Amino acid sequence: MSETSHDDGRLRDLLEQAARTTPDLSPADRSTAVVRRGRAARRRDRVLIGAAALAVAAAVAVPLSLHGDDVPEVATPTPASEPVGCPAAPADVTGPATSADLGEVTSVRLCPTVGGPVLASAVLSGDEAAAFAAAVRALPAYAPEDRCATASVAFEPWALAIGRADGGDVLVGSGTRHCSSVSIDGVRRDAGAVVQAFEDRAVLEAPRCDQAPADAGLGPVAARPRAGRICTEDADVPLSAEQTRVLGGDFEEPRGERRGRSCGPAAPARRVVLVDERGVVTTWTDAGCADVFHTDGATWAPSDAALQVIEDALSR
Amino acid sequence: MSTPFEEFVTARSGALWRSAYLLTGDRQRAEDLLQTALVKAWRRWGSIERPEAYVRAAIATTYTDWWRRRWSGEVPTDAVPDVPGVAEHADPTGVEVRRDVLAALATLPRGQRAVVVLRYFDDLTEQQAADALGVSVGTVKSQTSRALAALRTSPLFATEGELS
Fold this sequence. Notes:
The complex is a heterodimer. Chain A is α+β, with helices and mostly antiparallel strands. Chain A has helices spanning 3-18, 27-61, 127-137, 191-199, 241-249, 304-315; strands at residues 99-100, 105-111, 123-125, 158-164, 169-174, 181-184, 187-190, 227-231, 236-238, 271-275, 281-286, 293-295, 298-300. Chain A contains 6 helices and 13 strands. Chain B is mainly α. At the A-B interface, helix 1 and helix 2 of A face helix 1, helix 2, helix 3, helix 4 and helix 5 of B.
């Protein structure tokens, strides 16, 4: 037998052994959960389509009223009240685990944290907020994993402001996503799973160019950005989902060095603002003459496809 | 009476969950990943010709969508496997193998990990893996080659001298 066949056989055997375990959920429970999530997603889509139509009408009939963040919020059919806001200052989530009683949740908002990145506006309300609360309550009680005793856990702060039907609000957050918990309704839940329940439902949009950080010292973006904008001194162009996907393709694998184009001092400085699935905003800035973009500690030489997207966006 | 979708979940979701588990190394995230893929399938159930292939592809692409990875190619140090379920305590050797295999997989970039699971656990051909991930066959080949080269450095895979 060839070495390759040996390799293949050994790898298959090891994977089989590693996967020889059973899920905690029965197929029936899983099926029920999937159908519930699917229906919630379908409702959300209908609401968003309706909201988009209403927004067009409202743009004609009334002046825009902007408040707080300048990003459209997720519309809901029955907004009982304004969605909850974030604290005035970034939340410090480096202390003891937060504890909260959710009550009847009407809205949930992603909030800035001390030492954390700049975030896009992301809010859940109505059915989606209720679904978030249900998902969090369905999480099993947190049990620290063995590895947590010795693991070096990354600092990944997050905070969620949660609005309740009684008009009150609470803040839930943690300095990490792994090996930590938050107390919800008196039960400790896995911190990462709680914020993931929010992210799975959040609709993200890149901030307008004049609201995006000019030079983000924010760390790299995720491999797959969810939204983006192209900015110059004169342009503020939102990217379509497809355009965002093309740019995200550049982050799939590290790219080699690329010879930059030559250009004169009149070349417009460009910025690409990208938002990842966690709502983290990263601004890539082009020095104006090299087709190479920079953010804090990282360099991005866009592929030809990505450059085409940027040029297409700016030529609209 | 069960719907076709429920019958599919009953028949196949256990196997699909195991694929998700190898991708995530975490029981809870595997469940969430699988459910997310199943939701996508549920929403267009009537138009899907091959549900299992569709769900496998959804798992793979959702996984590569979800998992953050540093631009510079860093591998997160905290992405190590979770603890075993209750049933596994009866088989300490199996627990050790699982831990070591998942730890080795955790060192791979997402794309390579997905290719390894699709090719060597789900038993897909290179073409099927490429279709599932939405990449070329050439990419699957190169990802596989790089993944195997990386795995060869793991003591686990070298134990019997077969990958070394």
